[in-house]
Structure formats: structure tokens, C-alpha cells
Design a protein that fits this description.
With 303 residues, the chain is of the alpha+beta class. It has ten helices and 18 strands. The strands form four sheets. It has a ten-stranded mixed beta sheet. Strands 3-18-16 form a three-stranded antiparallel beta sheet. The chain has a three-stranded antiparallel beta sheet with strand order 8-14-12, with no helix packed on it.
């Protein structure tokens, strides 16, 4: 049973996990974990799953999915969906999730369950609340990781039932983007218990952002089991850098499969929102709507 704090309702909620029994078998049984390591986490299988979810054959799943997970479709633009993936990347109605205009506020770039940790080490792997974090491994770049030594990591976990587009949390310029090849394990907490190094092993896309107040920020989208593709809608793969972007603009989206967006900030740049900081210390995820505040600029003051 996965519980999280809901910022909007100020209650502790229980997550309705998509494919819960299959997830438990894949990561908690000996045979299931063996197959997951050697078969299910391979990219070709997720591509095959992605092909099915993008085909008209998958369309029949939509009504049952909406009903089972009680998705409020009045929040989304009216559309006819040609496949389950088409439904999966549905868009919120314009203006439904406003971002703060204050350039000192670092906003939630995804609608998700959040954890945040401070004082990260650039080179040493540390385990925070059951998750292995090492900046040089996460970024696949030791020199870049050194810029974030002692900084803050924010982890946004998206479930299959969620809005699956991700946005820029502040304005600035995008100076660099690259892909780190890897496996495609589930990012569900059940999987993280069995394999705490998932964020260091899964395939991921990294973008380096720069902002006048927050300095250098790494934004990382992590692939996962069943995620056929991560689409970067804000820029083509051959885009010349730097690229200027505005806060709240969509950066991209995940095709089918729960996944994760991570932000890494430099030391002394961000004061986390009190509920996010407090819950994370206790290992409790905080559900935060898209556009809500994650923290604010704190200058160069150290904690």
C-alpha cells in the first residue's frame, strides 16, 4: 500500500496502483525479478508495448481506465482519441493549472508525487529514503556533477493515471541536452525497494537550463517500463543551443507508462516549500499539482 500527502486536500491518500499485482510479482518474487532483470527491462519490449498502446487496437481500454481510476475528464480538452497513447497524453484545458508569475518561485513542472533532498554529493552514492542518488552517475558527467555538489534534488514520480506532459518550472535558456542510454525498469515504489539504483540505470534525457536567479539547473526525464518514447516538444533533436524558454511552457511528454522528472539545483539556490521539505524528511511523497510552488529563491544563504 503506497500512501502520499495530497497538498490540495491536505489529507493522506492511498495510491490506486496501476497493475499492482503484476508489479509485485515482477519485483518481489524470485522468478519475476529474474525475468524483469533479463527481459522486461529491455528496450525492445517497451517499444513493442508502445507500438500496441499507439495503435487503434488499444482504444478499447480507455473507458474502463477512466472509470477504474476515477479520472476527471472535465479537466481536459475535449478530444476524440485514436489510441490509448493518444488518451494518455491528453492536455489540460488552458488556464486550468496556472504558474506563478513571480520569478523567485520555482514551480512544479509536472503533476506528480514529489520527494526532495538537500546536500547532495557530486561523486558519492547516497541512499535517501530507499533511493540511490549519485549526481555523477545520474548526469553521466563528473565535471557537470561538480557544479551541483551540495545541491538539491527534486524527484517527481508520475503514475499512469496522471497528466503526462512536463513543463519548464522557471524561465531561462537551455544550454545543452543529451541522452543517457540504459534500461527501462518500472519507477513504482515497489520496484525502487527491490532495485534502488533505478534512476542511475534507467535510460534518461538530460537538459541543462540556466536562470538568472536559480543558476544552473539540470532537468532529467527518466524512461520506465512500457514508456515507448520521451518526446521533447519544445525543441527538435537538432536544435541549436542556447534556446530561450518561458516558465510554464510545455517541454515534452511521456508516452504510455508511469515515469519520473528530476530537477537538480545548485547549493544555496532554493528554499523548499515547508510541506515538501517536511514530508520528504519522513520519506512521504507529496502530491503537488502542475504549476504549484516547489520552493523559492534564497540567494546564496546556506542552510
Amino acid at each position: 500500500m503506497i500512501q502520499f500527502y495530497n497538498r490540495k486536500t491536505k489529507t493522506t491518500d492511498t495510491e490506486n496502483v496501476y497493475g499492482e499485482s503484476a508489479m509485485a510479482w515482477a519485483y518481489q518474487s524470485y522468478f519475476g525479478f529474474f525475468l524483469t532483470q533479463h527481459l522486461f527491462s529491455k528496450k525492445w519490449l517497451s517499444k513493442l508495448m508502445g507500438w500496441y498502446e499507439s495503435s487503434p487496437l488499444s482504444r478499447h481500454k480507455i473507458p474502463r481506465f477512466i472509470e477504474k481510476y476515477q479520472i476527471n475528464m472535465s479537466d481536459y480538452e475535449v478530444a476524440k482519441y485514436s489510441s490509448f497513447n493518444d488518451f494518455f497524453i491528453r492536455k489540460f484545458k488552458p488556464g486550468l493549472r496556472p504558474f506563478s508569475n513571480d520569478d523567485s518561485v520555482f514551480c512544479a513542472g509536472a503533476e506528480a508525487r514529489y520527494l526532495a533532498f538537500e546536500n547532495l554529493s557530486a561523486k558519492t552514492t547516497i541512499t535517501v529514503k530507499g533511493i540511490d542518488v549519485c549526481l555523477s552517475a545520474l548526469l553521466n558527467d563528473e565535471a557537470l556533477a561538480a557544479d551541483f555538489d551540495g545541491g538539491t534534488i527534486i524527484i517527481a514520480r508520475l503514475c499512469p493515471v496522471d497528466y503526462h506532459r512536463f513543463h519548464f518550472p522557471m524561465s531561462g535558456e537551455l544550454t545543452k541536452a543529451y541522452t543517457v542510454r540504459g534500461e527501462l525498469h518500472s519507477v513504482n515504489p515497489v520496484a525502487l525497494v527491490a532495485k534502488p539504483d533505478i534512476f542511475l540505470k534507467n535510460e534518461r534525457q538530460v537538459a541543462i537550463l540556466r536562470n538568472e536567479k536559480f543558476g544552473k539547473v539540470a532537468m532529467i526525464e527518466v524512461g520506465a517500463l512500457g514508456v515507448g518514447k520521451i518526446i521533447q516538444s519544445a525543441y527538435p533533436s537538432h536544435a541549436p543551443f542556447p534556446l530561450i524558454f518561458d516558465k510554464c511552457v510545455e517541454k515534452g511528454y511521456f508516452l504510455f507508462g508511469g515515469s519520473t522528472v528530476i530537477w537538480v539545483l545548485q547549493k544555496g539556490k532554493l528554499k523548499l516549500s515547508p510541506d515538501l521539505a517536511s514530508n520528504s524528511t519522513r520519506g512521504i511523497e507529496t502530491w503537488i499539482p502542475l504549476g504549484d510552488q516547489l520552493g523559492e529563491f534564497e540567494g546564496f544563504a546556506h542552510h
